[in-house]
Specification:
Order of helices and strands of chain B: HEHEEHEEH
Largest sheet of chain A: none
Oligomer: heterodimer
CATH class of one domain in chain B: Alpha Beta
Number of helices of chain B: 4
Strand content of chain A: under 5%
Structural class of chain A: mainly alpha
CATH topology of one domain in chain B: Alpha-Beta Plaits
CATH architecture of one domain in chain B: 2-Layer Sandwich
Largest sheet of chain B: 3 strands, antiparallel
Order of helices and strands of chain A: HHHHHHHHHHH
């Protein structure tokens, strides 16, 4: 019996996507600690392996050998299901992401929609985990996560709608192909479609930070007030899976920003496009995300919501109207 | 309305200024000392526990066993004894015990010592498993030093 090539394809992408997500989650922690160290003029991890490169493995081994305690009074089903509900959508989102012209697990016509659909499940996972763990800090954190995500999904989606209007497709592959040529063809610099494109990239980036609960919007796990927020009661690998889900979400956000605004796998000068450009771009964005975390202190909850409702949403709606007007006129 | 846009622009600008500062720090050399692998030399006025000073000529301690340090010590950490050698002049130190568990590093003993026979050591790597590890025999320490 010969193996259906489609089955091999599915298996290869399944393994590849999970390995990519897990490796990223592990080594972004290393990158985060190194970058934080150097910004504070320290070295960061350096003892385990050369440049501390084996540190994530040591951390992983430590988390995995810990006992999975289920505290009294928690909802056992929700408590156990929540980390998986954060991790699975993050991995599922990788399915539609085109890493290069040919390297994509599933090229779906509504790929963009799929990613946003899965991104909303992530919040649900955090909410369930927090509710299930019967902890007041977790509940406060969950309330914050939900209101923050509701507030920041609107400007993000409005920005994306603007972009879909310009490119005329929700297929991520086609969105990248429409940015072929050089960096002046990227959506971030398409000033003929809308002069506010760089600003809409900024809005998208800020919303991405907020959606992934990164500093300065990490109200959900504000250590100084909420211990570890929704993760307070989670021991060992329960916490570890949450953590991996968070970092996988950051990678998804960076991939999306790259595909939508920075031309995906296209080279800035139109030469040798390929997966290497995609990786360079996403890691540059991730570097910036970490850089922002170690530059700015955490905002207060009210100013966080004010930023979204009073500044980002009006500007993104204005951009939407301006873009549609310009598309109609020119 | 003008203020609304002014605040947005100045606020965004201030964020970029902040990021410029941190990225400059990122590329500057690190300033921390990797402690167990490298150590800083202690400054001359570092006040560790006391140590006996060796007389360069005789190779013996400069101590004349006057007992002033013992009297000056507010916590009573110093115990010393001496004996008169046969046919010699003055006393010779035979025992000098410092109980470092009680010492508060006030330095009154060093101040009270006329012949400058005791001084602060620069040893700060003091870790032990037992309380008795901190009862130092200073004569032994002086002999072991070189």
């Amino acid at each position: 019996m010969s193996l259906d090539p489609e089955v091999v394809r599915v298996l290869a992408f399944l393994v590849g996507v999970i390995a990519f997500a897990a490796l990223n989650a592990a080594y972004l922690v290393w990158l985060e600690r190194k970058e934080a160290g150097h910004i504070q003029r320290r070295i960061g991890p350096k003892e385990v392996g050369p440049f501390g490169l084996l540190q994530p493995l040591a951390d992983g081994a430590k988390l995995m050998t810990k006992q999975l305690i289920v505290p009294d009074g928690v909802d056992p089903v929700l408590f156990k299901i929540a980390p998986i509900m954060v991790m699975v959508p993050a991995i599922m989102s990788f399915v539609t992401i085109p890493f290069s012209d040919t390297l994509v697990a599933r090229n779906i016509d509504i790929g963009l929609l799929v990613i946003f659909a899965f991104a909303s499940v992530n919040v649900l996972g955090l909410l369930l985990g927090a509710w299930g763990s019967r902890n007041k800090y977790a509940i406060i954190s969950a309330a914050r996560v939900v209101s923050q995500n509701v507030a920041y999904e609107i400007p993000m989606l409005v920005t994306v709608v603007t972009l879909v209007m310009i490119t005329g497709t929700m297929n991520l592959h086609e969105i990248v192909m429409s940015q072929q040529g050089g960096f002046w063809n990227w959506n971030i610099l398409r000033l003929n479609a809308s002069p506010l494109m760089p600003i809409s990239f900024l809005i998208f980036f800020v919303c991405m930070l907020a959606e992934t609960n990164r500093a300065p919007f990490d109200m959900a796990e504000a250590e100084s007030e909420l211990i570890a927020g929704a993760f307070t009661e989670y021991p060992g690998m329960g916490f570890g899976v949450f953590f991996m889900g968070e970092y996988a979400n950051i990678v998804i956000g960076a991939c999306l920003a790259t595909i939508l605004f920075l031309g995906g796998w296209q080279c800035p000068f139109g030469l040798y496009p390929g997966v290497h450009w995609f990786l360079i771009k996403i890691y540059a964005i991730i570097f910036t995300v970490i850089w922002i975390r170690w530059t700015f202190p955490r905002t207060t909850f009210y100013s966080l919501l004010n930023l979204s409702w009073k500044i980002l949403i009006p500007i993104s709606f204005f951009n939407l109207i301006l873009t549609s007007a310009m598309l109609k006129v020119f | 309305m003008i203020d609304y846009f002014k605040e947005i622009i100045s606020g965004t600008w201030s964020l970029f200024v902040g990021m410029a500062i941190t990225i400059r720090y990122f590329f500057q050399p690190v300033v921390t000392v990797q402690y167990p692998h490298e150590t800083l030399p202690m400054p001359p006025r570092f006040r560790g526990h006391i140590d006996l000073v060796k007389d360069e000529e005789s190779g013996q301690s400069k101590c004349i066993v006057c007992g002033m340090c013992q009297k000056a010590c507010p916590s009573g950490c110093i115990t010393l004894a001496g004996e008169k050698p046969e046919g010699g002049k003055g006393k010779v130190l035979t025992k000098y015990i410092l109980d470092f568990t009680k010492c508060s590093l006030c330095g009154l003993c060093v101040e009270s010592c006329k012949p400058e026979a005791i001084a602060f050591s620069r040893d700060y790597n003091l870790a032990g498993l037992n309380r008795n590890d901190y009862v130092f025999d200073l004569i032994k320490r002086m002999e072991e030093r070189n």
